[in-house]
Amino acid sequence: MHNLINFLRKNSHWFVFIFLEIICFYFIFSSNSYQKSIFFNSSNEFTGRVYTISGNVLSYFGLRSENEELLLKNADLQSQIAELKDYIYDLENDSLKTNAFITDSLGTRQKEPHIIARVENNTISQIYNFIIINKGKKDGVQTDMGVVSQQGIVGVVRDATLNYAVVQPVLNPHSRFSCKILNSNTAGTLVWEGGDPRYASLTEYPKYEKVEKGDTIVTSGFSDIFPEGIFVGVIEDYKSGTNDNFYSLKIKLSTDFGSLKRVLLLSGKDDERKELEQKIKNVQEQ
Predict the structure, then answer these.
(1) 167 DSSP β-pair partners
(2) CA 159 – CA 144 distance, rounded (Å)
(3) Could you read off the pLDDT of 42-78 as tens digits, one per residue?
């Protein structure tokens, strides 16, 4: 306390000077309209900038919930598109049962819930990369569930514990996904052979199909993992494969695996369809 009093006494002339300056500025701005307008314009500009910055900060922290909403909306749209394609296909192949199809199928189809998860760990520089997410069996996660992001395809669930799951991404030599050129019915196999995490290859693509650089690659729907039409990437280059009848397409992947934060897990085909396909597979192996 004694030191504070000494400090105030020692610098009292400065405090008096500042106090007089404040009084002078008060009289200047209150007595002169020009200076007053400059002061108010400057203060309004400063206040506006403060509000802008604070608004941007608040908007940034609100992006998390908005991203989750967008993921759910994208999942709903994907489900609706897949359902519409199924309806059209069935109607075209069995026009005699149109009325029964409308009354029965529309009433019995149930949309499986999708699961949003946060990426806890993610590797892109190894040969056998993996992703760990914060959702597990208690959240409904099962093996072989397809995993996507807002950018496109990510991978497939390979194992799950009660609270976590391991995703095998496209960036893993063991991954094989059926993909095709948009608006084409011919599929190839998407593989990653190591190296640059921005690129993969679409192999075994027939040469009789038209191929151009910049073509869009999507999932084919010919598997249990992904429905048709999920964005994969674009063709950057192509060349003849080991078999002269096929191309090997260099695909620039749409998903930036290095910045992956949130993913969406897709429910696969219904159990009845899986059971039927497994029976067919067992018969073929006999």
Answers:
(1) 131, 157
(2) 8
(3) 554 555 455 456 656 655 555 666 677 777 777 777 7
How far apart CA 46 and CA 40 sit, in angstroms, is: 10
Q: How far apart are CA 78 and CA 131, in angstroms?
A: 23
Closest to 200 measured CA to CA, from 174, 233, 178 = 233
C-alpha to C-alpha distance for 263 and 230, rounded to whole angstroms: 14
What secondary structure does DSSP assign to 184-223, as a single string?
---EEEEE--SS-TTEEEEEEEETTS---TT-EEEE-S-S
Which residues make beta-bridge pairs with 235?
A: 251
pTM: 0.60
* Torsion over CA: 79, 81, 87, 92 (sign): negative
- Residues 255, 176: contact at Cβ < 8 Å? no
Locate 85 and state its tokens: 């394609």
**Domains of the chain with bracketed CATH:** 2-61 (no CATH), 66-111 (no CATH), 114-269 (2.40.10.340)
Q: Name residues whose C-beta falls within 8 Å of residue 14's C-beta, 6 or more positions apart in sequence.
A: none
Give the tens place of pLDDT for each residue, 149-198.
989 999 999 999 999 999 999 999 999 999 999 989 999 999 999 889 99
DSSP state for residue 62 in the 8-state scheme: T
Q: How many CB atoms lie within 10 A of CB 255?
A: 24
Q: Could you give the CA distance from residue 13 to residue 11 in angstroms, rounded to a whole number?
A: 5
Q: Phi, psi (5° rounding) for residue 81? A: -65, -45
